[in-house]
Amino acid sequence: MSGLVISQLNISHGAIRAVNDLSFTVQPGQLAAVIGSNGAGKTTLLRTLSGLKSAHSGSVEWNGESILRKKPEDLVRSGIVHVSDGKSVIPELTVKENLALGGIWRKDKKDVALATEEAIDLFPRLGERLQQSADTLSGGERQMLAIGRALIARPKLLLLDEPSLGLAPLVIDQIFQAIKSLRDRHNLTVVLVEQNAMGALRIADIGIIINLGKLVASGPAHELIDNPSLRAAYLGY
Amino acid sequence: MGRLLNTILIGVSGGSIYSLMALALVLVWRSTRVVNFAQAGQAILSTYIGYVVITHTDNYWIAFPVALVAGALAGALIDILMVRTLMKRAHSGPVAGIAPVIATLGLLGLIRAVVGMIWGGDLRQFKLPVSNHGFTFGHNTIPFAPINLLIVVTTVVVMLIFSLIFQRTNLGLSLRASAYQPEIARLAGIRVDLTRTIGWAFAGAAGAVAGMLVTPTNYLSPNSLDLLLVSGFVAAVIGGLESLVGAAVGGLILGISLALVLEYVSSSLAFPVAFVVLIAVLLFKPSGLIGAKRTRHA
Amino acid sequence: MRNLLGHSSRRFKAAITFPLIGVALFLISNRVDELRVYQGANVAVYVVAIISIILLTGYSGQISLGHGALMAVGAYAAVLSQVYWHLPVILTFVVAVLAAAGFGAILGTAAGRLTGPYLAGTTLALAVGLPSLANQFGFLGGEQGLNYDVGLPPAWLGADFTQYKWFFWISALAALIVTWISFNLLGSHYGRNWRALRSNPTAAALMGIHVGRSKVLAFTVSSGLAGLAGALLAMTISLVTPSAFPTSLSFSIVTGAVLAGVTLLTGSIVGAVVLVAIPEITGALAAHLGGSEKVTSNLPGLLTSVLLIVAVLLFPNGPQAIMKRTRKSSQ
Fold first, then answer.
1. In which element (H, E) is residue A11 found?
2. Domains of chain A
3. How many domains does chain B have?
4. Which among B94, B102, B107 has the least Cβ separation from residue C198?
5. What is the pLDDT of residues B110-157, one digit of tens each?
6. Which of B29, B105, B233, B282 to mutate against chain C (most C CBs within 10 Å)?
């Protein structure tokens, strides 16, 4: 089966079960929003998908191949790229160097150059600041840099951890629109983890709502938005 | 005036070697967050290998690259065999925090014992690659000799090569990224384990160069580089422990101040001075004299 | 209430245990040969030294690779007070403790602001550099050192009471006293502060523990004990020289403490016995295997280092972690 298939996944965090018997499927080319409050297990889930954390039991397949127990650096090479939370850039390096990191392992240097241009086209602000240290960027610009770097790896599955965290509403809009246009243009599969439920579900194809590590609801994003009981309990308005 | 200049020149020569040792410590610190006390052992092992080559070929210039490669290999091996296991297993508990320090300490003892078993404890001497008689200008002979020039030039070349690698190559970018943010580096696809091994290899090579440069004007014994380890550590701390430039500058500061004290105050004060400098830097400028913003709580 | 009782019964137990150990040691020392008695004295010296590391590293979370240098400070203080002030032997030990503690307090004030690698490097610098300083000041006796004489055993102990037995008595008594004091110290609120400090300095500070002062105190006490160990060591060789306090001594004590489990006072005896046994084991090994002087003279160093590495690689989180694990799995 193609796409991302997660079944009966359990992840422990010391003595705590952070993700509990979680199953869902993301079809190729879909944008999936994983919604939940703080501590719901969203970040733990993403860290397991990208190989940073090991699962307790269950299975995760990407295009028919198990990806559990693989190292993050190998998963990156097979097209699974994770943009971790906390504006994942290296502040000690320049913007240009941060971007270069994304393609450092790739053999096809021509395509790396092309992908870098595309990333700068998508986020023109990065182009203006190439020589600056990433330390000097604003929160929104850091998020753009992190996503831009991920794109240079030519991902097939993009894992985004709370890209809206701590950003101003206008900037959030900009980032979300960029994510959506990426999906449309490159036929990316995207797993977007968010606390900002409405913003994420508006651009998503499907939504997965989890609470305390368990699946609460999943389905087409517009249906979740329209479901009154979910709205009251999880979507926060 | 002439005396002051001569003293400074000698200080620069001595300080160059401290810089190389500091560089070796900084390279490992950046990649692993461990001060590698075994560096003295690795350097002494490489230097003994250089010594063997010299006794067979009677040529310092063949021995030099051999020692350098041996140092790099030893560094890489130590990372693969010991540090990797340690990084995976040490988490918490009373020993975990000090485990890396203890392990490198044990390694220092181990290498020293093995070197002692193979070559014994006798003091040995290198044939000088170039003269140690001071340069002569007209009627004046200054203390600064061709061997000192060799030390300074080699150090400058090594430092330049390392800065080029770090600033201009993809390998250097990987090394820096892994040093600053290992997790983000992994998520960018960098093989951080491999990068760390390369960092250890570079450090081993730098330590070997330090050993090969200091030994011709000194003697060789299983613990003849212990004091150099301490000086290198002091230099690295002066430089902030994080930066290559810091290591170079720290070494020069220490070298010149020691030379001045030895010349103008007393030859018995070398160690106390180094120690006081260390404590003073740690107390008053804990982030080092060069740059680094981080605190010393790593 | 239960706590109070438990505490006092522990005191009571200790009050009985320590004299009992003393009597046992006395009986044993009468039945073994001179070499064993001498080794016993060495074990006692190492027990004191290892406890000094356990208090520092196991409880306050600081590391020192320079305790050999602090032992040298204690030894030189003791011998100087004997040579120049003609103090009685018992007072020279007191001087050793005070001098090393004073030195440690100064060092600890600097060290209290350092963590991990910085402290390790600074104390290592001390271990490498300090003992050799003695070579450069005439009144310290240079490479030949100074003779340190604790005198003959008192006559009332009998004519067949040997010098080595006297060394053993003194050092064993010292070790017992040090162990007893340490037990009480760790049970007191100072000990609790140190433990809190080790596991989480920030939380300790929030609980109102004065982090800096507490660390300096630990360093001072530990240094004082190291000074005592140094004087005792000097006693057993009747001499104070720079070469009696090589860098490897500092490493040996740390090895002993790691083997002892770093937080177990009672483990210090295990660490000390291993340290004393190593030269004997390697000696036997060398005699068995033959081999040149080069090999034999380096075997002890090799064995110590290998033990240290293996201990750290196998129990990177301390032997307690292993015990916890086995306890868990047996449940």
1. strand A4-13
2. 4-235 (3.40.50.300)
3. 1
4. B94
5. 999 999 999 988 898 888 888 888 888 888 888 888 999 999 999 999
6. B105
